[in-house]
């Protein structure tokens, strides 16, 4: 960012901001950006394109002599992926003013029992403060936020379309569930006498799939991404099980009904299998976000000026944009990715598609910063 001529600052949790002051710097800025963190064994395009592309989208008009009326700001969000502390879009949630998250992070630890605050301090952040409210931004800080991202799905590539213009971001909910049984020796405890926490977890995983399919909409999805058994030995009946469940929909009410059905299934399983439901915790249950009509129009105009094909579409993955929508009007630009692959090493986007995305972002930012 500094090499691009931006003035750089960092906040108490590691969100990084690079600003190009406009002709009228007192006006609310136009922001863009994404994240560079990743889940294990993933690719190198998710998020990164939206950060490097954002920097390039500012370097180009800077070199050309363009003078934005509004300031332009690149944001590199910290911890978009929930890999370490189990909280997705941690940086943008805090920017959007989540007091619940700020308070819970005071006691949040990773699997090695390292607290979030200790981790932040070891990285050079939050050195002398436990109050993370300093990260919060006021609504209206930005006049617009636009994020460039790979689609993470196959539609654009399959249809031969250059640019996806996001109209809405699906609403995510994340759950943790734990069962406790009696455990025991795999050979000595007969089947009728077992209270198997592992089978309880397996039954709930299948229930998640059933409830999602029964919703009646292709937009409802559910995933059991983590299923852990204790003690984890081949000759030991699981005495404890831990599941982490992700379910999403563009319809918040429909998604919430799925969450409630999962809860009811968990309760039912305790009765049929004689296990204890020791934890059923909704980590987050966020509302969907709609893209701003003016930003959609600006992106559409940019694609036409560049003679690129485009398609209005929904983002079923959630992004930092979901939470930035709580601060300002929001929009997203998608580019194709190979076979729709994401969150795996085969994730890939061509130079041409990345170039198209950056060009559209550049023109969009120029238009939004001139108003």
From TrEMBL:
One of its GO terms (molecular function) is hydrolase activity, acting on carbon-nitrogen (but not peptide) bonds, in linear amidines. InterPro entries: Amidase_Cbmase (IPR010158), Bact_exopeptidase_dim_dom (IPR036264), Peptidase_M20 (IPR002933). It holds the Pfam family Peptidase_M20. It comes from the Eukaryota. The keyword Transmembrane helix does not apply. CDD domains: M20_bAS. Keywords: Hydrolase, Manganese, Metal-binding, Purine metabolism. GO terms for cellular component: endoplasmic reticulum. Homodimer. This is Peptidase M20 dimerisation domain-containing protein.
């Amino acid at each position: 960012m500094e090499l691009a001529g931006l003035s750089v600052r960092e906040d108490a949790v590691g969100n990084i901001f690079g600003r190009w002051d406009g002709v009228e710097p007192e006006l609310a800025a136009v922001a863009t950006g994404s994240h560079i963190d990743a889940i294990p064994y993933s690719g190198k395009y998710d998020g990164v394109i939206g950060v490097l592309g954002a920097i390039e989208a500012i370097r180009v008009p800077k070199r050309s002599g363009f003078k934005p009326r509004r300031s332009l700001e690149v944001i590199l969000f910290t911890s978009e992926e929930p890999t370490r502390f189990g909280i997705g879009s941690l940086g943008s949630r805090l920017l959007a003013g989540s007091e619940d998250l700020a308070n819970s992070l005071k006691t949040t630890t990773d699997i090695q029992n390292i607290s979030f605050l200790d981790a932040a301090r070891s990285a050079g952040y939050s050195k002398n403060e436990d109050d993370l409210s300093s990260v919060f931004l006021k609504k209206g800080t930005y006049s617009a936020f636009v994020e460039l991202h790979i689609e993470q799905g196959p539609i654009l590539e399959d249809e031969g379309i250059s640019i996806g213009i996001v109209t809405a971001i699906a609403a995510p909910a994340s759950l943790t569930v734990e069962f406790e049984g009696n455990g025991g020796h795999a050979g000595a405890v007969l089947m009728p006498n077992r209270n198997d926490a592992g089978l309880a977890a397996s039954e709930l995983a299948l229930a998640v799939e059933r409830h999602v399919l029964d919703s009646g909409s292709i937009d409802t999805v559910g995933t059991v991404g983590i299923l852990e058994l204790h003690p984890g030995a081949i000759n030991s009946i699981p005495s404890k099980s831990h599941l982490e469940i992700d379910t999403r929909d563009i319809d918040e009410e429909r998604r919430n009904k799925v969450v409630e059905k999962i809860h009811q299934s968990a309760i039912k399983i305790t009765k049929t299998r004689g296990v204890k439901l020791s934890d059923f915790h909704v980590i987050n249950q966020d509302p969907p976000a709609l893209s701003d009509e003016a930003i959609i129009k600006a992106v559409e105009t940019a694609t036409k000026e560049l003679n690129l094909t485009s398609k209005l579409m929904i983002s079923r993955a959630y992004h930092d944009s979901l939470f930035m929508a709580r601060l300002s009007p929001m929009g997203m630009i998608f580019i194709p990715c190979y076979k729709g692959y994401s969150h795996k090493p085969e994730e890939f986007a061509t130079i041409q598609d990345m170039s198209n995305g950056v060009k559209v972002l550049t023109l969009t930012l120029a238009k939004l910063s001139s108003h």
